[in-house]
Amino acid sequence: MNDKDLNIILIGMMGTGKTTVGQLIAQQLNYDLIDLDSEIEYAVGKSIPDIFEAEGEAFFRNAESAVLEEVLKRQKVVIATGGGAVLRKENCDLMSSKGWVAALTADEETIIERVRGDVGRPLLAGNLEERVHKIMEERKDCYRFANATVDTIGKSAEQVALDILMHYRA
Question: 26 is in which domain, residue-wise?
Answer without folding.
Answer: 3-162
